[in-house]
Amino acid sequence: MTQATTPSADLNDFALVTGVLDELSTGERASARDLAHELASACRAGDDRLPSVLERVRTLSDDQILHLTRYLTVRFHLLNKAEQLNIARVNRRREREAESRGAKPESIREAVQKLRAGGVGLEDALTLLRSVDIQPTFTAHPTEARRQTVLNKQSDVAEAVDELHSQRATPLERNEARAKLRRAIELMQLTDDVRSLRLRVLDEVRNGLHYLSTSVWETVPRLGLDTLDALREAYPEAASTLALADMPSGVRYRTWIGGDRDGNPNVTHRESERALRMLRESAIGLLDLDLERLRDELSLSDRIAPAPRALLDAIRAAGAIDLEGSGDAEHAEHEPFRLRVMQMRARLKSDPSYSSRDILEDLETLRSALESMGCTESARSGPLGETILRVRTFGLHLASVDIRQHSKVHERCADALLRAGGVEEAYTALDEDARCAVLRKELLSSRPLVRDWDGFDDQVREALDVLRIVREAKRREPDCVRAYVVSMTHEVSDVLEVLLMMKEAGLYRVVAGGSIESDMDVVPLLETVEDLKHGERVLRSLFSDDAYRKVLAHRGAEERCAFFQELMLGYSDSNKDGGFLMANVALQEAQRSLAAVCDEAGVTFRFFHGRGGTVGRGGGRANRAILSSPANSRNGRIRFTEQGEVISFRYALPAIARRHLEQIVNAVVLGKHSAASEPDDVSDRDIALARSIAEKGMSSYRALIDDEAFWSWFTYVSPVTHIGGLPIASRPIIRSGSKFEFENLRAIPWVFSWVQMRAIVPGWYGVGAALNALDDTELKHCKEAYGRWPFFTSLLDRAQREMARSRLPIARLYAMEHPDGAAFFDPICEDYERARTALLSIAGRSELLDNEPVIKSAIEKRNPWTDVLNLLQIELMRRAREGRSEELSGHMFAVINGIAAAMQSTG
Description:
This protein is about 65% helix and about 5% strand. By secondary structure, the chain is of the alpha/beta class. The strands form 2 sheets. It has an 8-stranded parallel β-barrel with strand order 1-2-3-4-7-8-9-10, surrounded by 8 helices. A two-stranded antiparallel sheet has the order 5-6. Helix 23 links the parallel strand 9 (about 605-610) and strand 10. Helix 7 runs antiparallel to helix 8 (about 170-190). The protein is globular, with a radius of gyration of 28 Å. The relative contact order is 0.11.
């Protein structure tokens, strides 16, 4: 199951698509179909049957296993799409019902109604809504196992099923929809689920562009309309004064795709340059289509009513623009609005200096002209308002690219620059205080250290070249790159080193009077448990630094505040480092303490949450995470990563994208409002309890993974080594140049492997040991906190859900493939049972997920079919260990993809 709360699949839809699948399965595929049903039925009969089913699987040929895997994978692809369609359908039904029952829960309408009910006036409500700054950030992390062509086939299935549901469809249209459905499923059966080649960086850029240019582009104006409708309903006395073009969507997109080079040698400055160009070209193409629609809309004739002077002046001023290819100017001789839009389209295509700010100014001229001619509806809603919203949101860059690199690379760059500039011969040998002293002195000086970078080694030259690319791109569109993320930030020098590099590239300048201009935010990324604990100290030191304080002031001017700092919190490495409980508690404490440091220093902040798709990497419902964060951290500004299969789930259908985003807007608006109006009732005793539980959980987790025999057992029984060869992304599963060992394994394949084995250890392990160690008084406190403290409730509920998704009888079969299997599986099983007993007692329930029966039912229905895939994988790994690994790699990749489809999550 996905991490989002999703309804079970619409049974009619699922029966429809699987019925077509079974009907179209012929020959070998029919044999695979029948065998899949037989094995799933045996798995459904009881966990005690699993070993015998595994023995049956061991009699199958390699080809039988492959055909079986393909049938089950397609079946899950169809189930997943049926679920998505049902979610969209349920949301539409709830929206219709909301007309009579009140606002739909977790909607923008609900948020605005609550503001009005709380006595917030229109102006204050608008101020609050305009302060909302939500920035989803697409990443290319290797967590999407499906090929784009498979995603496209799923979209074809969705379109066909939607057409069959249409009340307006004619019999002929229904027949065509059924034929379209059959074609899509027929082709899906024969479409390879595994890529033949590893994705290249530009392939990842194209994948991200697909969602940005379709559902995201479509959804942003819809959010503006939702806000407009909500305000008009809540404040009817001012309804006539509100316009779509003035509505804040509150959402702007970022991307790491093409900019994240931490551990990925394939992301070079040339790839970043191409990514920026592709984003710009896509934005220009989309905006041109909007302007074409606007041209068709604005048919006003000056033979009926004279055009306003400002519009005519704008047309005359742009008279030299070549209109060839932008429409027939002669036909628009008496249609000044159309003529002006045609000029805008021509300039958009031919003038690189035509910025998004220029376009906004031209659109506002059109709007004012319409208002002056009495066309208030056209000026305040419709295509013009949508286009203005889009330009404000997407500019000519579509999504701002982040640059990310590891702090060790910056250290090498600073060392090379300071040595070449004759400032310091042995920078890396200096202690932290000495490093900062050297860096501060250079950051307050206007002189460059070097004339060119030719004498540096490849790594240093590459790190500086990307900043040169950024500088050139920002001259065309300032918002195309806005942040530089520093992975593994441990000390103040890790941040100052990046500023030194920016200074050499012309992105940081000391100007007259000693003030500083910095063209990008430098974003410290606190990833490990220790870094989260030390973040407060690092931040205090940064804020007390004279040079850095000037940087904060300049960035504050960009963000409309006095001083500004963005901070990224890493969920993946903190979980891999400290386990589920410690990672979550450390992140909660870090948000509270870092927000307090910022407030004391008068610095406005934005937290950037590096959340993965799974609970083990910070996944789950983003809106609940927002509302359960510390009150002092809920300031209306937030960023969060959207990764891999999470992107395709949330953005494949515009209706789901809209629901996802409206839930986040709702949470950010109400979270900020409640933080300002209600005190945080979390006590020191609550915090101490959570910390104590986390420490016990981490101790248990570290005891498991620090066992000297653990790594050899894990690599033997899990598919982690096979995942490393799966061509699902351009980034390696271990950090560049590192050995294949636990410390160097990235968090994604770590979680991915546990999900594949159905143990999902990163999502709950340690909870049993931690809660079992509580005395009666502490247990009573837990029960009370669970009902009162949103963070604590969310923490334990997420553990419950991951435990419910786990299948320990299946995980046992993986574990026992190794002679030492019991030594590692028994502690896992024991912790599970302890956690289950304690969690049910605290929550007052009899079974896991009793409070979420739809999800519980969906998991139970999926389990037997997923079990079959797991048994196939266990057998394939056994055959691979016998020396047939290379021969069976395609089979193994197929079954990994199949389990990923079944679980709807990877890492």
